[in-house]
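My current task is to audit a protein record that another person submitted. What it holds is a sequence and that sequence's fold in token form. Thanks in advance; the entry in question is below.
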Amino acid sequence: MKIEEYLNTLPKSIITGEDVDLQDNTLREIFEFASFGKNDIFYHLGCGNGHGLSIALEEFGVKKAVGIDNNNEKILAAKKMLEGKGLSGFTLKCEDVLESDMSDATVILFWFSDYTITEKMAQKFSMLKKDCRIITIWGPLPGNLPDKVDFPYIMNKVPFKKANSLKEQIIAVFGTDCIDFVTAWEFAGRYSKAIASKNAENDRFLTILQTLVIWINAKNLGMACEDDIPPPIKNYIGILKTYFDIEVEHLLNHDSL
């Protein structure tokens, strides 16, 4: 089956990240990347278990932490946890992020992969106060150049800088216009580590998939260092096809080979 068909067989919550809670160390890395300060008003969109709010308040001393999630059970569990720690300065909302008021935000953590949502949210974010920092994982907001990158963590700051092309955006994220297998593997590994699950085998599989996606996108945009498909990429394409019945080669623009 083609990779698109494979992804459609997975629960939507896995694809969107709805059921993936970031590890505490990953949250700390994100908050350090965002340079949290005592005057910051932090919004965690898709706050899940509320650990992000807890760390932001306890360890980084933000002025206010707001968690938004459309799962009421998660909101109730987060409320119980935060109150159990005796924390104050937090607000929890069970609502759709597209409808949420976040006009006082200075930092927002936004980890959604649904393009229709990210595109609408990018428009919403663009109306926020000057210098509000939007932190994403893996890619910047659609159509915009990042202000700061420590891959896979990416920051867009209001007002946004528009990208002239997808190629310009990718160069800004990866810091190079020549992406080889080693570069693709390194960046895919950083992403897998950031969203690490309890199953190392799943992380390895994710790294392989993301490596192929990075390299193939680079090849199609004329940004691959190699003229031909390098042996490791061929090997992984073969492994996915032979052992998992997942086909990705169709993603390649064969005119560029």
